[in-house]
Design the sequence.
């Protein structure tokens, strides 16, 4: 599409230029043979075909009536075609420039087709320059004014209606791009601002290439929960107040509310400057802990520690069976082989029964 200034021209001259650009190719686009050259000013006959060197202009002025009406029961009411300009150009000072109506359940009120792999329908808001069409685009909306200009806006007032729907068979349904703000922004006064759903993949996926920004950021300005994760078919629980991340799962004994994993680093890190870094309400389980039995007549037992032992490892051990005068003497790390520890007693605890010892490994 050629870019041309439109603001300095009058409404009458604008209509004349647009109609002249499209008139020469309308007949060939419909598929009929071209008619012979006709003189300007010739009477238009219903069913006739004409070419003209100047525009045919309809103006109802201030009557409020429609300037040109095309109707069809099973085909196209009005059709405009152009090889390099505008197919149909309508201008109105107070109504609609172009209005299309269709009563069929499976047809559109306005259809725009770009056979040259350009833009089917171009909507432009502004008084400066007509933008170039976008390639391979069904509908392209463009607005370059300041103050919250909207390129494409979809509104649905039905109870289950959708304002804007994007559908793709194998790629992205909706793709939002911004160079300096949000690519996609969802807002609701009483419902969900943005919702993602998938039957076989991620419902919502966030990606960030920045070194100091999150892939997904949840902010609760009302002092509720920033990010709420709920697992299960039951209705999500009420988000707690003053909580950054809240995870909930209650299906069975294997359910995990919040899970953090790292192959070589820290799975979950808790930090507090003046408060409590870690507060556990209920049972706590550690994989690097356990219970061992010291055999009768023995003064030690060897344990295997998951993940191995380093110079920063500390093994705490206590007797779990009462033996008068007996205590833990010491713990030797990485002995008799790496990854094991030997727990020593001060003396033989019993000559008739085994003695239980509980142990726990921590890092400093």
Sequence:
């Amino acid at each position: 599409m050629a870019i041309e200034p439109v603001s300095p021209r009058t409404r009458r001259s604008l209509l004349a230029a647009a109609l002249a650009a499209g008139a020469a190719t309308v007949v060939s686009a419909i598929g009929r043979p071209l008619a012979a050259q006709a003189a300007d000013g010739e009477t238009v006959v219903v069913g006739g075909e004409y070419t003209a060197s100047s525009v045919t202009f309809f103006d109802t002025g201030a009557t409020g009536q429609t300037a040109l009406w095309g109707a069809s029961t099973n085909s196209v009411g009005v059709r405009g075609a152009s090889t390099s300009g505008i197919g149909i150009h309508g201008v109105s000072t107070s109504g609609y420039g172009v209005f299309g109506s269709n009563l069929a359940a499976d047809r559109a009120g306005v259809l725009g087709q770009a056979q040259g792999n350009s833009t089917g329908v171009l909507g432009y808001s502004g008084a400066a320059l007509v933008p170039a069409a976008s390639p391979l685009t069904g509908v392209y909306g463009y607005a370059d004014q300041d103050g919250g200009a909207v390129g494409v806006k979809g509104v649905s007032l039905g109870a289950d209606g959708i304002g804007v729907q994007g559908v793709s068979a194998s790629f992205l349904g909706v793709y939002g791009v911004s160079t300096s703000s949000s690519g996609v922004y969802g807002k609701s006064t009483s419902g969900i601002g943005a919702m993602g759903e998938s039957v076989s993949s991620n419902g919502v996926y966030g990606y960030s290439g920045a070194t100091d920004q999150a892939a997904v950021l949840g902010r609760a300005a009302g002092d509720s929960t920033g990010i709420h994760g709920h697992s299960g078919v039951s209705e999500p629980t009420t988000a707690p107040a003053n909580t950054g991340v809240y995870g909930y799962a209650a299906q069975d004994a294997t359910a995990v509310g919040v899970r953090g994993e790292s192959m070589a680093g820290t799975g979950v890190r808790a930090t507090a400057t003046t408060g409590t870094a870690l507060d556990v309400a209920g049972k706590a389980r550690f994989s690097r802990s356990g219970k061992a039995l010291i055999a009768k007549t023995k003064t030690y037992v060897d344990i295997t520690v998951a993940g191995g032992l380093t110079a920063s490892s500390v093994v705490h051990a206590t007797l779990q069976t009462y033996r008068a005068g007996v205590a833990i003497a010491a713990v030797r790390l990485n002995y008799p082989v790496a990854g094991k520890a030997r727990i020593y007693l001060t003396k033989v605890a019993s000559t008739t029964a085994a003695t239980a010892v509980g142990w726990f490994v921590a890092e400093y």
About this structure: Residues 289-363 form one domain. DSSP finds two helices and ten strands in the chain. The helical segments are 11-23, 26-30. The beta strands are 119-125, 137-143, 225-231, 243-249, 289-294, 300-304, 313-319, 328-333, 340-345, 355-363.
